[in-house]
Amino acid sequence: MPFLTRSTGLSLLVALCSGPLLAQENEAEAIRKQIAEIESKLADARVASLGELTVNGRTIPADEVRREAIYLIGAKEIEARISDFFIEEQKQIAIEEGRDPSEFVVADSQIESDVAGLLTEFTKKNPDVSLWDAVRVQFGMDKARYMHMRKQTILFDRVFFPGPATEWPVVTQEAIMASAQGGDGKAFWENLVKASIDDKGNARELPPFWLQLCRGWVQKQLKSWSDIRYPSDGLPPEICLKVNEQTWSTEDAFEHVRRGLYAQDVERAIAEVTIREALRQELDKAGAYLSNDEFRQLFDEYRQQYDSTPFTTEVIAVNFKGYPSLEAFRQRWRLMRSFEKMIENEITDAALEEHAEKYKAFFGNGQVVVDVIQFLGRSQKTGGWLPNGVEDARKRAERAMKAIENGTDFDQILAQRGEYYANDEEKGRLGSKSMNQLRQVLRENEFLDLLTGFSVGDYLFFEAEPRQVYGPLRGPDSYFIARVNARIPPRGAVTIANE
Fold first, then answer.
1. C-beta of residue 482 within 8 angstroms of C-beta of residue 470
2. Would you give the end-to-end CA distance of the chain in angstroms?
3. Opening angle at CA 292, ends 286 and 294, nearest 5
């Protein structure tokens, strides 16, 4: 028997133990690759229909269809790409002025460490929900794209906010001064510099809230100082975005959003492209469709009233009107303004008075008291679309409506069958709502109105009779059975004499 020393014994033990561990790691890696391949194939299947479309004989190339889908679904990706252009441009200037290129290298390990903390905290609060499922629902991106955006934020700070404010580049200083409320940008900047240095003259970090504000101000000013061109500005289909002569191809952009798409996203994109094209054709026949130059001039005039305030055109379009991106709003605005041009001779004082009378409950701040039984097409936990979710929700709503018609109490059905998100405090008892409040609770908005062709909120607010049950009514992501309990009359009348 050979002599076994302690060292050779340990080596043998390690070898014996590491064999199974190595096999397990190899097996786990193989499973991860297999899952990635399956996910890629599923993504390919989902987006297969986003190809060439023909609407009333006019063929829309695949690049144009996919580009529209990017702006309808991947709005955060567009904003991230614009930031990438700004970061790269300023980074090169900083290096030419003497900064070490290594300052702009962000290690993947740092991102992993940051996300690990986020994952732990999220899991504590949401033990039954995957963080990456939530990210996909909220941002429309997979883990890799989310990690890139985290990395981008760190790099943005290193480029535009290195050290104390005294060391920030001129472009950052000018952007913050230009964004100061009250017009005294110089005084604001001087106070910011003081806040970034303690009593002993040492640099100190700004509070996260202030840094976040500064990021937003710099982004806003960089965008206002740049020449940013979108598809509605006349870009060829193969170009998705153009920033200061730098371009992002449609092919590259689509690859970035492809894996984050739900089947419902694809359906919505195809519907939006088809509807817009059909409307454009009709406006074109009437000689009312705005040319590229007309549109750009009129839209620039329109946005001036908002862009000098915190509520910019983009904020209003995305946060209040429900559009997925500024470009999606621009495309619709062009159609709406063209339609106004087509019917301008019909917009008389008499027509406006008739309109004011018909919708006096809205103009006079009337309200409606409503209860709704909701049947969701999305997961109540994550908000993600369920397979065949909308169709299954319709069937559950129809069964519930049948039970009510056969004598089952509405309130009993609401308590036993209603489906609501975890953060929904009202659980169908909506109480007294103005029209806009009602539409917000039902998750309706201007963007979705044209796609769905029907507004549950408008119907309940203006037409549904009190103490009657209506349904199933199709909403953006669910079906509703609704009961109007009462109406509160408008507080006053609006006339054409009141500008």
1. yes
2. 105
3. 75
Is 262's pLDDT higher than 80?
Answer: no
- Whether the CB-CB separation of 253 and 70 falls below 8 Å is answered with yes
The pair of structure tokens assigned to 11 is 């080596």
Asked whether 114 and 163 are in contact (CB, 8 A), the reply is no
Query: How many CA atoms lie within 13 Å of 195's alpha carbon, on the beta-carbon side?
Result: 12
Q: Which residues pair with 433 in a beta bridge?
A: 368
Q: Calculate what percentage of the chain has a pLDDT beyond 90.
A: 54
* H helical segments located in 100-207: 108-125, 131-139, 143-160, 170-179, 185-195
Q: Does residue 77 contact residue 253 with C-beta atoms inside 8 Å?
A: yes
Interhelix angle 326-342/62-73, nearest 10 degrees: 110
Rounded Cα distance between 437 and 165, Å, is: 43
Residues 417-437: tens digit of each pLDDT: 999 998 899 999 999 999 999
Per-residue confidence band for 201, with pLDDT thresholds at 50, 70 and 90: confident
In angstroms, rounded to a whole number, what is the distance separating the alpha carbons of residues 111 and 151?
A: 6
HSE (side-chain half, CA atoms, 13 Å) at 188: 16
**DSSP-derived pairing of the beta strands 246-249 and 429-433:** unpaired
Strand 58-60 and strand 478-488: pairing? unpaired
Residue written as tokens 């290594």? 102
Q: Which residues, other chains included, contact 193 with Cβ-Cβ below 8 Å and sequence gap of 6+?
A: 164, 165, 166
Alpha-carbon distance values, 469 to 369, 371, 400, 401, 409 (Å): 13, 10, 12, 9, 11
Q: In this structure, what are the phi and psi dihedrals at residue 431, rounded to the nearest 5 degrees? A: 70, -155
Beta bridge partners of 469: 483
Q: Look at residues 370, 271, 324, 452 and name the one whose alpha carbon lies nearest to residue 444.
A: 452
- Report pLDDT for 1: 38
C-alpha span between 177 and 183 (Å, rounded): 8
Rounded distance between C-alpha atoms, residue 185 and residue 212, angstroms? 18
For residue 481 the two structure tokens come to 């059975």
Distances from the Cα of 69 to the Cα of 90, 180, 182, 321, 462, angstroms: 30, 36, 40, 19, 34
